[in-house]
Amino acid sequence: MSTPETPAAPPSPAAKAGAGVATYLDERLGTNAAGKKNLRKVFPEHWSFMLGEIALYSFIILLATGVYLTLFFKPSAQEVTYDGVYAPLRGAHMSEAYASTLDISFEVRGGLLMRQIHHWSALIFVAAIFIHLFRIFFTGAFRKPRELNWLIGNGLLTMALIEGFAGYTIPDDLLSGTGLRIAEAVILSIPVVGTYVQFFLFGGEFPGDDIIPRLFIIHVLLLPGIMLALITVHLMLVVVQKHTQFPGPGRTNENVVGFPLMPVYMAKAGGFFFIVFGVCALLGGIAQINPIWLFGPYYPDQISAGSQPDFYIGFLEGSLRAMPNWETNLFGHSISWNVLVPGLILPGIMMTLLAVYPFIEAWVTGDKREHHLLDRPRDVPVRTAFGAMSIAFYLLLFINGGNDIIGLTFDISINNVTRFTQVALIVVPPIVFVITKRACLGLQRADLNRVLHGKETGIIKRLPNGEFIEVHAPISAEERFSLMQRNTYAPLAAGPATDEEGVPTPGHKVAKVRAKLSKFWYADDMPKPTPEEYAELTAGHGHGDDHGTDVEGHGH
Amino acid sequence: MKRLSARRRHPLAGLVVLLLALGAVGGLYSAFAPSGTAEAADDASSLQIQEGKGLYITSCSSCHGLNAEGTSDGPEIAGLGAAAVDFQVGTGRMPLQSREGQAPAKKQLFTEEETVAIAAYVASLAGGAPIPTAEQYAADGDLQEGGEIFRTNCASCHNFIGKGGALTRGKYAPNLTGSDPKHIYEAMLTGPESMPTFSDGVLTPEQKKDVITYIKTIAAEPDPGGYAAGRIGPVTEGLLVWTVVIGALIGAAVWLGAKPS
Amino acid sequence: MSYGIDTHGGHGTDLAQVEGDPFADPGLPHHTPRRTDIDARAANRAERQVAGLFGLSTILTIGFIVAFVSIDKEDTMYVVGLGTINSLNFALGVTLGGSLLCIGFGAIHWARKLMNAEEIVDYRHPMKSSPEDTADALELAKQGVADSALPRRKLIWTSLIGAMALFPLAPVIALRDLGPLPHKKLRGTLWDKPEHREIVHANDERRLKPSDFALGTMISAKPNDLESLEDLAKAAIVLIKINPQEIRSKELADRGYRGILAYSKICPHAGCPLGLYEDETHHMLCPCHQSTFDLADFGRVVFGPSARNLPTLAITVDDEGFLVAKGGFDEPVGPTFFERGDA
């Protein structure tokens, strides 16, 4: 691996010093063996492999700026009278938490920058988790052996949402207080224990003096601590299991092709960290975020039109708005489905489905092998369609969470936006499913055509018999290989209902369900051509044509 | 040329022309009317009322009735007072352009003088709240107090800094940041359309002044943190992240992974 | 494919994978050199660019320090496209962001243009341990179990399970004092107490009288001598004055005073304060989830997710002519809780 330099060059002082440090550490920690294993660790290169990195880096930025903010923030609900530099609030009564956030924004030099970097990177963190999740899902990177890392990722997503909500809440401004009030209602809606959970969490009735310091410690210690640990495991598993790669010539399930950690990925990933940090810092300097001074301090009898949570909580706001007003009263007790379902049950179902998807898919395919080669989304139409359908469902909830902003901006009645959402939540996802699946199969067919008939050149030729045809050029062996290196599954068979002696086979019903699902998953897939088919198709045509083109006989 | 033809197609163009013509007739009338009744008018206010009556009859009476008693096309406005008329006509909401939905603020049809004259005429019919004086709506009240009142009673419709918000069935609370302080005062006092009334009993004139002070100060306040994306809160922030920021970061990732030539 | 087909289970093959690729793997493509690999001038230029970016970063960091010490924290400036903004924040953000971006772009540019661009191959091994390792581990585990004496001394095992299952109770119990028990606290408000029945203005806390109201008036109010936000979070009300003829029932009119009605300001859906009152329709809208209540008709829900009507507070005037509550609300205000029931 060494570059051809003059072989006898004496080691430089820097190299000597480096060797000294390495020896010192190795004699105490045995680091040289670890270095041997990891210094030239190979990372495959693809832009979509950097999406999780965005999340990781924004988490680091959040930790750094968060520590800074704790040096000035006072997590206290104690009432104070503001006498700082922001004139419109001078003389107002507010919590110490809100007052200290004003001070960070107006009196601490660089404080506003840090607050804004913190908030921007929080939004980037959650957004990056989402797009990272999409990449993992649509390429099937969650398959064996990575199911456990998928679950860790799911846990991180859930915690990121709670962590973000806690951070949004602790400045105790009018907007965040409104969000907290809704959270309180959601907790109260839990059957049997809800009222007790609310009283224990808030230290009594809403709002109370305890919730701000408690959310603070959850926000700065409990959740970041757990998340840091999980992120560490998440990354260690990537190292242990090695990164997945897209199929291509020379890239197999048994190897990993890419660039070494040292130096290429140290520079690229390290550089990317600085880019993410730089973007956050730049945003903190030029784009205002969460101007709590405009919202005012929280009072439980005040509210603003267009009160909105940060985007990642928007789907909950939308589901609460779209839910019909159902409530059950029995035996002197109440269950408010109108809060419980959209606030807890629905997100619970969504997160559970997300978490168990890899196991469902593995069961349906019966595939117990390790997968290190990624799928292209089109090659697994049902999975892709499920993903698109779920995103559509989520987006509809999210859009309804801003129905007042939409109504105001586009001059539509909010009542109509809500009614539209209620219908669309049921109608649109299945339509998206069908369209996506069809689109995937269409793309599969296009791939197959490209492999068998070559690529369209745009050159129209007139044959002697007067027929017009388009000249197709054969594609490279590399491309042909890449396009057809996908898993094809035949639907599973359920097997006989009884064995030879007429005794019912145990578990036959389950097997039948599985066979049906398997058919649903795979029956429509385009089959790969067999080598014989390919040979037959290509042999009949003008190979060796002097333009290197392959003329297809099936003109349009 | 393109702009001209685009304008020509505007569906309301005919109506605007009609209203302008009506306004012009009214203006002409007002120019001639005082001379006809000169012998009765020896003081300025009755002159003004006469002028207002003329304008009223040409532009308002078809809906509100000859004596402001209301018709099937428009409500009774006698007794609403000068402030209500000044608000409706002064913000261009009246004369109404279309019966659909809420009357939007638009370019005024009458000059300030004419507006005041119509208001004086309507007030002369059955009294009501007068147009506030410049002293009443000057933005020199208690800023902090105004903010508190605003957040308790106004922000629920008009948003925390008066950006406006959606109401039921396509109605909306308008954006106040660019509104004339006089009109804000009049709106609080008279409660136009969906808006409730904040009578002097529940919101004293000083408190109204505080509210105006708050709205006007906040609107002029700089955004220390930078580009504020319309100051409407987390929605635009989220939009910015999902489009520009994530877009830029993915762009950087693509560049990072692309094979250099 | 070295993993082959896994076939077990009683119902045909469990794996439905159709094996085989129709085309042979052409192998890794040949490495094509970059311009910087063959053109020394291009490589030198890239080096200068990287160094330039790193140098610029240094300058920008110095700029950050200079801005920090020299710009007053209250200075504002106008920036085209951004508006009037805080000078210090802008300067700090731009210098810090620029400095970090320069490091990032410099490092990646270096990696792309000057570092060895030949892809290398590493081999994977199945995550599963080898059969020998598995057998050895199993043997060791068996040895461990035997050494622990557990198989012979079952009592230890059962008692240990009991101890381990119970000890987490201690920290859970210790959480008991996080808050008081709810009792009936959510059922009542400050209005229940006779000494807190004066209706006062939400902001200046002066008492209100009927003559303060014009037709169509709305104002936020609260009980007198309110001390805590917890009380405010339940006792906040809005007062409106409706033309008495438009009030749908005599029963409701009687709960008010000459057209003045008092409603809870706290939405019975999720507890947001209401206040979007439309005087023409008498509809009150919640800005959070858009439940809409008809205030001329006992706060009946006309739209949105609220399952409950908006509670009314019965009011009258006292001897001095000021508005007072006749008593508390007839039902709990705010969001529904499990013990609430239909009352």
SSE blueprint:
The complex is a heterotrimer of chains A (556), B (261) and C (343).
Chain A: H1 13-29, H2 31-38, E1 42-43, H3 51-70, E2 79-81, E3 93-95, H4 96-106, H5 111-138, H6 147-169, H7 174-188, H8 194-202, H9 211-241, E4 255-260, H10 261-286, H11 292-295, H12 314-322, E5 328-330, E6 333-335, H13 337-365, H14 381-401, H15 403-410, H16 414-453, E7 455-462, E8 468-473, H17 477-484, E9 488-489, H18 508-522, H19 531-539, E10 550-551
Antiparallel strand pairs in A: 1-4, 2-3, 5-6, 7-8, 8-10
Helix pairs in contact in A: 3-5, 3-10, 4-5, 5-6, 5-10, 6-9, 6-13, 7-8, 7-13, 12-13, 12-14, 14-16, 16-17
Chain B: H1 2-8, H2 13-36, H3 44-59, H4 61-64, H5 82-90, H6 112-126, H7 143-158, E1 165-166, E2 172-173, H8 181-190, H9 205-220, H10 234-257
Antiparallel strand pairs in B: 1-2
Helix pairs in contact in B: 2-3, 3-6, 5-6, 5-8, 7-9, 8-9
Chain C: E1 17-18, H1 35-38, H2 40-70, E2 76-79, E3 83-86, H3 87-113, E4 120-123, H4 131-148, H5 154-166, H6 169-174, E5 199-201, E6 218-223, H7 229-235, E7 237-241, H8 250-255, E8 260-264, E9 276-278, E10 283-285, E11 292-294, E12 300-303, E13 312-313, E14 315-317, E15 323-325
Antiparallel strand pairs in C: 2-3, 5-6, 6-7, 7-8, 8-13, 9-10, 10-11, 11-12, 14-15
Helix pairs in contact in C: 2-3
What best-fitting shape of chain B do the alpha-carbon axes yield?
elongated
Across the major sheet of chain A, the strand order is 7-8-10
Largest interface: A-C, 150 and 112 residues
CATH fold group of the largest domain in chain B? Cytochrome Bc1 Complex, Chain D, domain 2
Largest sheet of chain B: 2 strands, antiparallel
Mean pLDDT across every amino acid position of chain A: 89
Tell me the Rg of chain A in angstroms.
30 Å
Average predicted confidence as pLDDT of chain B: 79
Number of strands of chain A: 10
The radius of gyration computed from the alpha-carbon positions of chain B, rounded to a whole number of angstroms, is 24 Å
Number of helices of chain A: 19
**How does the helix and strand content of chain A classify structurally?**
mainly alpha
Strand content of chain A: 5-15%
The secondary-structure class of chain B comes to mainly alpha
How many alpha or pi helices of chain B?
10
